Amino acid sequence: MKMISTINRHFSLYDLIFALMIFLSYGFKNYRFLLYMYEILFIVASLKFFYKKEIKRNGFVAWMVCFFLISVISIFYATNAEIAAKQAINILKGLMIAFFISQVVIVDRAKYFEIVMWTLLVSGVFIVVYIILVTPIKYLGQHRIGDEVNLNSNDLAMKLAFSCLACYYFFMKNKNRSINICLFFIFLVTMILTGSRKSVIFIGFCILLINFLYIKSNDIIKSVFKFLGLSFIVYLLYRAIFFFPILNNLLGTRLTNLIAIFKNPTYADNSTITRFFMIEKGFELFRIKPITGYGIANYGIIVNTSYSHNNYIELLVGVGIIGFLIYYSIYIVIIVSLFKKILSCKRIEFVFCFALIVGILIIEIGQVTYYTEIFLILLGTIYSISSSPGVVQSVVQETPSKLS
């Protein structure tokens, strides 16, 4: 297998539109009208970009169609058809964006994967600056960042976790290593100050998995020592959360409560108890209607809450085992494909995408992602990398200098 090393570095108008779509999905989630308008612009620009070009009819397209259809079908038997219909529209919008993202990445996988990573990094800088500007100093270290300024702390934390991974990607690619390591720790500290448990688990797991998978057989001793050294650093950072009072107050006690529920549920905090109750309630509902569920996004209607805070439960209750298997089939395809490629070719892109998709599977225990733009964008990107013919190819083709 040979990698085509020539990369067309011309940054076209569509490349800018492509990057801004990711940036807005990342940093402007609360500005729904602005995001909706730009999503329409992106879809129109993408249609023009692919005008008279071949659309790749691949497994991702088939998956999109099947998942959208099962969501639409669920409207007709949903407990609340109006809620299901609105969610089906949200799913369609997110899938269309993910579709065009995946199609563009296929055009030049190496180039557009780096654009995605670069955009995640820049978006992280924007989020940190925004937090500094809107968060009163008196709240820092006293309350979870985000909560006091009407921002979702867990949402901020996950986005910063993705930005951390983007920094780590460029660090491993030997690009501006000092800058990227500084940004990594800025993102990491800000993420910890949000008090999000799953983001800390996610970033720690992904970095360890990346380095484990990147152990090279031709230099195994050096690679193993690097992995063990990094594992020790991750452990020290974990202990630091409990050592410093500010970090322990925001995150340490929450991690302790999460661990405690597996030993003695009476020691868990209200948030953890509520999450586990939602999961138990979801399984009860699933056992009653296991095949088709109660209609997409109808968990909250039945349980009289917002949503289940668990992607698996949300789908099992919403579209049953059929919709659940359809949705997660793309994950299985991606993981199997990437694992095979890693065994034959330890490209850093393959390793990062594998760690990212497995990490997402883990955080979906505590987060609903199936209709969220940024998660679907990442899913489309990862699929395109996983479907490459052996290595991440970079080809000079179909990358116009303008939209026409």
Estimated helix fraction: over 70%
- Counted up, domains total 1
Query: How many helices does DSSP assign?
Result: 15
The total strand number stands at 0
Low-confidence stretches: 1-8, 391-404
- Class by alpha and beta content: mainly alpha
Shape: globular
Radius of gyration: 21 Å
Q: Distance between the terminal alpha carbons, to the nearest Å? A: 34 Å
Please describe what this structure looks like.
The chain is mainly alpha-helical and 404 residues long. It has one domain. It is 71% helix and 0% strand. The chain contains 15 helices and no strands. Helix 2 crosses helix 4, helix 13 runs antiparallel to helix 14 and helix 14 runs antiparallel to helix 15. The radius of gyration is 21 Å and the shape is globular.
Output the keywords.
404 residues; mainly alpha; 15 helices; disordered N terminus; disordered C terminus
List the helices and strands and how they pair.
Elements: H1 13-27, H2 32-49, H3 59-73, H4 81-107, H5 109-134, H6 153-172, H7 177-193, H8 197-213, H9 220-243, H10 245-263, H11 270-288, H12 299-303, H13 311-344, H14 348-363, H15 373-386
Helix pairs in contact: 1-2, 1-5, 2-4, 3-4, 3-13, 4-5, 4-15, 5-6, 5-7, 6-7, 6-8, 8-9, 8-14, 9-10, 11-13, 13-14, 13-15, 14-15
